[in-house]
Amino acid sequence: MPNLAANLTLLFTEMPFLDRFAAARAAGFDAVECQFPYDHEITEIRRRLDDNGLRLVLINLPAGDWQAGERGLACDPRRHRDFRNSVYRALDYASALGVPQLHCLAGLVPSGMDLRRARETYLFNVEYAANLCGPRDIRLLIEPINTVDMPGYFLSRTEQALDIIAACDSSNVFLQSDIYHMHTMGEDVPAMLRRALPHIGHVQVADAPGRHEPGTGAIDFAGVFALLDELGYQGWIGCEYQPLADTLTGLQWRSGVAAAVEPAVTCLDPAA
Fold first, then answer.
1. What count of other Cβ atoms lies within 10 Å of the Cβ of residue 68?
2. What's domain 4-265's superfamily in CATH?
3. Where are the domains of the chain?
4. Can you give the residue ranges of the Xylose isomerase-like TIM barrel domain (predicted)?
5. Closest of 93, 173, 175, 106 to residue 140, by C-alpha
6. Which of 240, 213, 223 is nearest to 189 (CA)?
7. In the chain, which ranges are continuous DSSP H helix?
């Protein structure tokens, strides 16, 4: 069975955020991730992790004013100072909570901006954040997000992300591969996972269409998990989906995947 982390932003929303840690543990998770923990005190999150024996394996850098439509700051040259402040705030949380990876959202390309300038800004900011994360033993992740759900998002394809990683003057930049976004952008998921594997630091799953749990759409997740094991992927797989009904009912897909992939992977030790 793959090592799965519950995304507490999208799962267990039947209860307040801080109560979701205990719910994730009760549902059998050893690890969790979330998008933005910044509305809650570090000490409160630390207590929930410790009380439930959980690891927090991924958070995002602050994305700006989400309610106003901002989806990250890294590609906007007008927001250098805000971006740097967001890195330091994320590092405060990650260092105190033992988070090993931070996701740097690229953001929407400002209206009328030349794409080359947006790319230069993004590359500069990714390098800046990665070089601050490295000495703290924290990896910086970049994630392509589909432009169907998020029109205008700068980073939308895996090849584009691999190009950014290759261009970075840092060895501390890794790929966050979300199977839902890859599929929605029409990518050949198995072929791209094979190509990108050396750079992948984290995987996330949701089915398409709908962004619900695996088994509700068109993606062959038993095949995806079996391929990740075949390739020797050693990271966590984040359950970042919106349950079709309630969270616990939606989690039943895990037993089906375990039964489908176990015969082929009994000699492998998945990891994250």
1. 6
2. Divalent-metal-dependent TIM barrel enzymes (3.20.20.150)
3. 4-265
4. 21-253
5. 173
6. 223
7. 20-26, 42-52, 80-97, 115-133, 158-167, 179-184, 189-196, 221-231, 247-250, 253-265
What is the per-residue pLDDT for 271? 32
Please report, to the nearest 10 degrees, the dihedral formed by the alpha carbons of residues 12, 15, 17, 21 taken in order: -60
CA angle 49–53–56, rounded 5-degree value: 45
> Distance between CA atoms of 109 and 155, rounded to whole angstroms?
9
User: What type of residue is 117?
Assistant: R
Contacts of 173 (CB under 8 A, 6+ apart): 126, 127, 130, 140, 141, 142, 164, 165
Q: Which residues are catalytic?
A: 143, 240
Orientation of helix 42-52 relative to helix 80-97, angle to 10°? 30
Which whole-number Å values give the CA distances from 41 to 47, 59, 87, 96, in the listed order? 10, 14, 17, 11
pLDDT digits (tens, 9 = 90+) for 135-194: 999 999 999 999 999 999 999 999 999 999 999 999 999 999 999 999 999 999 999 999
- How many beta carbons lie within 10 A of that of residue 248, not counting itself? 14
pTM for the whole thing? 0.92
Q: 185 Cβ partners below 8 Å, 6+ apart?
A: 144, 146, 147, 148, 156, 157
